[in-house]
Amino acid sequence: MLDRLAKYRWQYLMILPSVVLLFLFSYIPMVGIQVAFKDFHIGSTIWNSPWIGFENFAFLRDDQFWVVVKNTLYIAVLKFAVGFPAPILLALLINEVRHSGFKRFVQSVSYLPHFFSWIVVAYILQSMLTLDGGLVNQFIGNLGGDPIFFLGSTEWFRPMIVASGLWKEVGWNTILYLAAITTIDPQLYEAAKVEGAGKLGQMRHITLPGMLPTISIVLILSMPSLIAVGMDQIYPLMNPANQPVADVLDTYILRSGLQQGYFSPATAIGLLSSVISLALVLGTNRMARKINGEGLW
Amino acid sequence: MKLSASDRISQLLIIVLLLLLCVSVIYPFMYMLAISLNEGSDAAKGGVYLLPRQFTLYNYEVVLGNSVIQHAYLITIARTIIGTAIGLFITLLAAFGLSYRMMPLRGAILGYVLITMLFNGGLIPFYIQLYDLSLVNTFWVYILPSAFSAWNMFVMMKFIQGIPEALVESAEMDGATPFRVLYSVIVPLSKPMLAAIGLFTGVMHWNDWFAGAFFVSDQNLIPVQTFLQQLLSAQDISTVLGSNNNVEALARGTAMAKVTLMSIKMATVMVSAIPILCVYPFLQRYFVKGVLIGSVKG
């Protein structure tokens, strides 16, 4: 055994930095979750803080917390309901384009927003939607309507998040689907034509089933980020006016933890959302296994 | 092949829909560019939609003359270069090491990596750890925590395992150490993959505002994206105009009325976006390749 270990000494040396980094930045924070059950303040260490049981979970009796949970689920479900099927539809559309130059052009353009930060997206929204001189309000004004305070509105916040999320990622998310479509055997289409299937029929009976394994993998992989509804996206757009609907678990953790210094309760909330995420991944994987015969692992 | 009438109509419909999508992507950038190249007070009157009406480079002079922005730019460039180089190096080493299927403990190490993809300690314990390591408020908080990427490691490993083993074995026969094999056999054959992952890592660094906003309080350490995030909610232009090196430009009398908060914001955001817009067309195929390497299930 020792011989075999020694034979691979260089390989172990290569892996070592990564193992150390994971230990420092992933595993120690996992151990740090115990802060959720302790009375921790910055300056003391995780280890010498006193245990206080479930006191940090008092937020469960806080109405504000449940508002935040509702907001999180609301946005998560909306984003998923729109964001999951949209790239599948877009891939089907792009696939139908006959002119290959135009097809490549659409692909290139639609991938582009993926490479900009959510901050840039927030600026775009601001330039389009702001009250004083925003493009959309200019149009509304020209049509004789009253300007709408999109950026500080509780009604417009969710549509804004869903639409900008779609704008940024829909093109990029077609890549895997388009790749899956190219692996479909062309003979299947020929056979379908002989059987008299039209374009829509071919789409439903050949293209979609051909994409199904990819769809299920994407579904599983999207689960961990479902509850993490995109603080990157939401935080820059949140303000006191839209906070009643915009405040989600992650922004709540950020505010109470890093900004107000309630480290322990914020950790407790984080633990809860990590556990939910994990359950979602494992649950979806099991479901995919049942439906597809195989999951991700 | 002749198209039937209904086919032609559906083609037309699809093309129109997709063109609309393209416009929705491109137009916001053209609009922001137009505003940033227009005199601020004039743009505020409305009506600038596609091209600047009162053309000026003044907004850019003010933005590029600001010492905070200049410094933020340096930080962004530094973290993008250093972060990408270190990230690629460390992750590639691990991927190559773990590509040896017969290595004892390989399964255990892979499991150790996989767990971190499924579960994490959350933001606060992570922050406490950064604090304990004295990384808070240092440049290295941008580099070290993200130096190893489990996802990229699996993509690289899969790619390396696709390289014919005979090549590695013949090099080993010649007495090459694994480091030598990595350098002279694996790296030359992995260039497209390294380019793709390097680009993803670089874009991630370029776009990250979060670490700068929450793990750093020293204004001398914030990257451009964090500066943008602070500017987003600014109520007046003092954020940008204070600490400006370009005093003489500012002092040019009436010129002050030519900038508004919006025109300055648009110029700043364009300054952060233009580099990506410029390199994107040339590097796009690498990005796509990168995604596809990662998606092959193994």
Automatic annotation (TrEMBL), chain A:
Membrane topology, as annotated: Multi-pass membrane protein
**Gene3D superfamilies of this UniProt entry?**
MetI-like
Q: Tell me the keywords, alphabetical order.
A: Cell membrane, Membrane, Transmembrane, Transmembrane helix, Transport
| Record has Transmembrane helix as a keyword | yes
List the InterPro entries.
MetI-like (IPR000515), MetI-like_sf (IPR035906), UgpAE/MalFG_permease (IPR050809)
Q: Where in the cell is it found?
A: Cell membrane
Q: Name all ABC transmembrane type-1 domain ranges.
A: 69-284
Q: Name one GO cellular component term.
A: plasma membrane
TM segment ranges: 12-37, 73-93, 210-231, 262-282
Q: What is its main location?
A: membrane
Q: Name one GO biological process term.
A: transmembrane transport
- Look up the domain of life of the source: Bacteria
Q: Which family does it belong to?
A: Belongs to the binding-protein-dependent transport system permease family.
Which protein are we looking at?
Answer: Putative aldouronate transport system permease protein
UniProtKB/TrEMBL annotation, chain B:
Q: Name one GO biological process term.
A: transmembrane transport
Kindly report the protein's main subcellular placement as a broad class. membrane
InterPro entries cross-referenced by the UniProt entry: MetI-like (IPR000515), MetI-like_sf (IPR035906)
Q: Does the keyword Transport apply?
A: yes
The record's annotation in PROSITE patterns points to:
ABC_TM1
Give the record's keywords alphabetically: Cell membrane, Membrane, Transmembrane, Transmembrane helix, Transport
Its annotated compartments are: Cell membrane
Stored Pfam families: BPD_transp_1 (PF00528)
Q: What does the entry list under GO cellular component?
A: plasma membrane
Is this entry keyworded tRNA processing? Answer: no
Q: Which domain of life is it from?
A: Bacteria
Name of the protein in question: Carbohydrate ABC transporter membrane protein 2 (CUT1 family)
- Organism equals Cohnella lupini
